[in-house]
Amino acid sequence: MSPPKPGRFNGLLTGQESRQQLYTMLTRGRHANHLYLQVVGDGDPHALIRPDTISPRTPTETLQQILARDEAPVSAKTLLGELNHPAARLFQAVQRYTDGLHVAAEQLAGHQTVAELDHADQYIPGLSTEPAWPTLRAHLLALAAETGQHPLRHMLTAAAGRDLRTADDMAAVLDWRLTALTPTDSGPLPWLPSIPPTVHAHPVWGDYLAKRSQLVADLADQVQAHACQSDRPPVWAASGSHPSTALIGEIAVWRAASGINPQDPRPTGGTQLETLPALWKQRLDRHIAHATDSSRNTRADERQAERTAISRQRLYQRPGRRPSGPSAPGR
Predict the structure, then answer these.
(1) Higher pLDDT, 313 or 209
(2) What is the pLDDT of residue 92?
């Protein structure tokens, strides 16, 4: 590549920049500013399980993400207010609840069982190198804590269904099958797992996770109430759409619990790796699409009724045309 010409600035964006950094990059050149977007991964094997690596953002979405990231200095009072907001607290509460479930299930399973599970490649070669293996591993340990059976038994039962050799991610396929084979009760949120009975009966983990679960439920109620009382349309609502108050509350809870940037225009954010959140995201997307279609149909009906009224008015105004009907004069 030839060196840049004097007065021209070339910059590379990875998607992690803030709007302030983007402004700086766009105003350095005297004659021209050129930006290049990184739309593929950097080859780091530890980043394979990240949602942005599995489902990369489009260039437009990357720029929207940068513009939504504001790193302007704020006062300590403002920062404390933002951190104490129920939406910000809900994300942290969900993370602590799910992490607590995974750690408790692993401790109750025992070191020997966990070590045997980590050698799952002996049964399904290459399984532990798949991007969704950490998700599958946590799911298997949770099932073991709930049923008292060895996690490898659940894994082999799911693997016996159909061939896995053609799957892009064998661990993701098995995790999906586990959800279908062993449906569980929902936890404090519809897409979160509940506390297994064996964990709930534990003298330490049971009380801790019960309080964590209650905190998630309480914060979700606060987020939903705040969203339903707001007079401003949500940032994700399409122009002209009129989503119901209940749907606005559901989306607000989902976005807060998933840690979606408040300025992200995507209603339900990016790709979900785990099965239950992915299914709930699909449900919300369908409801949003239905609300949008309903508003479009309503506008179309209104336009059609208006055109029909205008056509009738023009018809009656034609020379020599007299309205017909029982009440028409002259009959």
Answers:
(1) 209
(2) 93
H runs (alpha helix) in the chain:
19-26, 51-54, 59-68, 76-83, 86-109, 111-117, 133-147, 151-159, 170-181, 197-200, 205-229, 245-258, 275-316
Domain ranges of the chain: 8-68, 83-315
Sign of CA dihedral 85, 86, 89, 95: negative
330: its two tokens: 């002259």
b/e code 296-319 from CB counts within 10 Å (16+ = b): eeeeeeeeeeeeeeeeeeeeeeee
Tokens 């050149």 found at: 29
Q: What is the DSSP letter of 93?
A: H
Instruction: Check the CA dihedral 49-54-60-61 and report its sign.
Output: negative
The region of weakest confidence among 33-47, 153-167, 249-263, 315-329 is 315-329
Segment 3-26, tens digit of pLDDT: 556 678 888 888 888 888 888 888
